[in-house]
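Final report, section 2: Outcomes. Of the targets proposed, Cytosine deaminase is the one most frequently requested by collaborating groups, and we therefore present its record in full.
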Amino acid sequence: MLFDYVLRNGRIAGGSPDPVDVGVRDGRIAAIASSSAMSARDSSRDIALDGRLMIPGFVETHIHLDKSCISDRCNCVTGTLQEAIAAAAAAKRNFTEQDIYARASRTLEKAIVQGTTRMRTHVEVDPRIGMKGFHALRRLQRDFAWAVDLELCVFPQEGLLNDPGCDALLVEACENGAGSIGGAPYVDNDPHGQIARIFELAGRYDLDIDFHLDFDLDPSWMHLDEVCRRTDQYGWGGRVAIGHVSKLSALDAGALQSVGRRLAGAGVAVTVLPATDLYLMGRGAAHSVPRGVAPVHRLLDYGVTCSLSTNNVLNPFTPYGDCSLIRMANLYANVAQAGQPDELTACLAMVTTLSARLMNLRDYGIAVGNPADIVVLDCRNSSAAVAELAQPLLAMKRGRISFSRAPAVINWPTSADLSGSVDPASRHRDAGI
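The predicted structure is given below as tokens.
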């Protein structure tokens, strides 16, 4: 068989530590064999990986493309969640469809060069913005399909039952290409009513659900319980995710275990947004500021599907961001004090395989027959990827190279100038990518 590409001598994350060759043909993974088992005559093009790590691409489970890159339009002072919501809502009134498309494109291009190949973006609809954001991101979905599979999660950021006209817009989006539906009960005057309506619409249109939930540090009450109850009622286990859930960071070990078992039993997944949660939580503390980041690596022990994600980029909720999910995994590991090799490996899973499970991606993974979505990281194993912030060097989407960057090269002085202080043979060589 003649392959379009053979990726030679790479290691598959989560697989055997031994290097393998991966043959790609017609946009799919056609063969995986032990390193050097495939002849040079078997491919139109060889890509030497020199033992580097291959992943099936990063999976962004929670981002807001429609309101990215607006920091320069907002004047925020307190850094609270309430201020961020108000500032973004004010800026949103001047959004146009073309403006949204242009900003979202810049953000999506950043994600592409950081190795993201699948993405769920939230998109707001309400009587102020109408369907502008939804239409802009539908265009983006089509225009960038060569590099990223983009799912649109429609949701009401400023409330639903307290916002006349919003429900009809949600329905319109559900009937015109929304891939999932979300909500933010904490901004509604009837949080349980919003949860009930979102489940009703999800059931009607057969959509997965992704809530923004329990986004504060008061653990005395949670909307999480109602979401689990409705998940059980609708039989929607495995199709519901909740984001932020910073209340979980304020629980003791026993209470966290109880919540973890309830989430696992209901089939409700959890996404943590480390950059945003760190930035917005604990603003009322003058010292010993709480981190406000839910310890999702502990929830994995109870069988909860968990992911880490970017959330916001250059806006009042998060005035930072380069769309690097390996950076987000590293940030979480630092904050959560997750430093053992198995913990670091779990952090990589929470931006790859576990994220894919949360989004119910059936064709994700480096396996024969799957789409040839492959990202090469400049490291040798999964724990090192997170510990060392390994850079993506190349991404392939359905068998086409969507981006590449050369590894950094140190410009050594000549052998004569080294005066024997460095052995030239010890220098790390370029992989030829």
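The radius of gyration is 23 Å.
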